[in-house]
Design brief:
Helix content is 42%, strand content 13%. It has 438 residues and is of the alpha/beta class. The protein has 2 domains: 42-295, Type I PLP-dependent aspartate aminotransferase-like (Major domain) (Aspartate Aminotransferase, domain 2), CATH 3.40.640; 306-436, Aspartate Aminotransferase, domain 1 (Alpha-Beta Complex), CATH 3.90.1150. The strands form 3 sheets. The chain has a 7-stranded mixed β-sheet, sandwiched between helices. Strand 11 (393-397) and strand 12 form a beta hairpin. Helix 3 (35-50) packs antiparallel against helix 4, helix 5 (88-98) runs parallel beside helix 6 (115-125) and helix 14 packs across helix 15 (413-431). It is globular, with a radius of gyration of 23 Å. The N and C termini lie far apart (52 Å). Pfam families: Aminotran_5 (PF00266). GO terms for molecular function: transaminase activity. InterPro entries: Aminotrans_V_dom (IPR000192), PyrdxlP-dep_Trfase (IPR015424), PyrdxlP-dep_Trfase_major (IPR015421). It comes from Hyaloscypha variabilis (strain UAMH 11265 / GT02V1 / F). Residues 61-240 form the Aminotransferase class V domain.
């Protein structure tokens, strides 16, 4: 398939609506949609305004079915094993709040968990006396060690006579931006009789997931509005047939819910209860769900297909991240095997040293106390927005400060070089203590 618009700035100018002065180096957080997809969404919203009742009651269910049918092959699953929801956080909540917990049950997860997901576990613990086992991960770390740590964590809990109900992990981490060995982690869960719950927020449109149906995790959710180019918010939620009885309600509970003590209500169109549960959850804008075919058409017809997109995004992230590291005089986070780098992210170390005031560093060492890391990160982010019209995703990990950069089809190496120069100046301002005066 021929790429009709060259990747890089020609793609940006022809098909994206960024402000001329904005440098979009953080695609991973919220994604963006190309103009043809946004135009299709606008068309759908116009139809909804013209005939609200007809569109919401009759048209949207059909459009959602078309989207489900279109996306199922991207996961290698049956169309009736997937439904559409607003975002990955909703999917994680849906699973955790549907499971029937018993006191003493354990949820196992890694320290790199997305913050909202960890808080979901904490919220559930307010009502049920379940336990959480957090397995510490300090990157860079090889896949084999991650797998070993999960097996060891589950085994330790089980040796104490407790039940590990769920193990939760990612396809690609939010921070650091790194591909996880999620397939092997699913295998560990199967071995040890534990439900696997995958936060694939950075999944579909980012890494190849066509083997998901063969890997067969117990639950999986992935945002389409990040890397697949649908409008926000749209996510695909996969529950294999064997587990659909565990999901009794969407969030919020709505019309598809069936009372336990009554005869099942009839479901029109021959749809399964699982699909029916999520077809209409509440009054909201369902147009992002119906934009999946338009997004897939853009990716195929304009971009040349998934392989071409992945190859470009991986390469521009890898090469661009290395150029930023060269400008800063630092390194890109990587493992020897480099499997963590098989994604659209590059994590580049900032030229700032951190330690403890108790360690006896001299003032000339320019070593910042770890307690200042949060303030420094916020300041760099703030100055990136105000001074340079860009958004820098900054985080502190393993005693160092990093910027996470996203590769995307509308970026070029020169964008990374530009960011590298701006970050270098911001770090020099940090060294002068400017962040303390703001």
């Amino acid at each position: 398939m021929t790429i009709k618009t060259p990747f890089g700035h020609p793609m940006r100018h022809a098909h994206f609506a960024f402000s001329p002065t904005y440098t979009p180096i953080n695609h991973g957080s919220f994604g963006c949609s190309p103009l043809p997809v946004l135009s299709h969404q606008n068309h759908l919203q116009t139809l909804a305004s013209a005939r609200p009742d007809t569109f919401i009651v009759r048209d949207i269910p059909k459009l959602i079915d078309e989207s489900r049918t279109a996306i199922a092959p991207f996961l290698g699953v049956d169309v009736d094993e997937i439904v559409l929801i607003p975002n990955a956080t909703t999917g994680i909540n849906t699973v955790l709040r549907n499971l029937k917990w018993e006191e003493g049950d354990v949820v196992v997860y890694f320290s790199t968990i997305y913050g909202a997901c960890e808080k979901t576990i904490a919220s559930i613990q307010e009502g049920v006396m379940i336990e959480g086992l957090k397995i510490e991960l300090q990157y860079p770390v090889e896949d084999s060690e991650i797998v070993r740590l999960l097996r060891g964590g589950i085994g330790k809990v089980q040796s104490e006579g407790k039940r590990v109900r769920v193990a939760m992990f990612d396809t690609v981490l939010t921070f650091p931006g790194a591909r996880m060995p999620w397939e092997e982690l699913v295998d560990v869960c199967k071995e040890m009789g534990v439900l696997s719950l995958i936060d694939g927020a950075h999944g579909i449109g980012h890494i190849d997931l066509r083997h998901l149906g063969k890997v067969e995790p117990d639950f999986f959710v992935s945002n389409c509005h990040k890397w697949l180019f649908t409008p926000r918010g749209c996510a695909v939620f996969y529950v294999p047939f064997r587990n659909q009885h565990l999901i009794r309600t969407p969030l919020p509970t709505s019309h598809g819910y069936q009372y336990l003590d009554s005869e099942p209500e009839p479901i029109s169109g021959g749809k399964s209860l699982f699909v029916h549960l999520f077809e209409f959850v509440a009054t909201m804008d369902y147009s992002p769900y119906a934009c999946i075919p338009a997004a897939l058409d853009f990716r195929q017809r304009i971009c040349g297909g998934e392989g071409a997109i992945r190859n470009y995004c991986y390469d521009v992230a890898r090469i661009g991240g290395q150029r930023v590291a060269e400008i800063l005089g630092t390194e890109v986070m990587a493992t020897k095997s480099r499997t963590m780098n098989e994604c659209c992210f590059a994590n580049v170390e900032l030229p700032l040293k951190f330690g403890s005031t108790r360690e006896g560093h001299r003032k000339t060492d320019r070593v910042f106390d770890i307690s200042e890391a949060g303030k420094i990160g916020v300041w760099i982010n703030d100055r990136g927005v105000k001074d340079h019209d860009t958004y820098l995703q900054i985080a502190f990990h393993a005693g160092k400060m990093w910027v996470r950069l996203s590769g995307q089809i509308y970026l070029e190496i020169k964008d990374f070089e530009w960011v590298g120069e701006k970050v270098k100046v911001l770090c020099e301002r940090v060294q002068k203590g400017e962040f303390r005066r703001s």
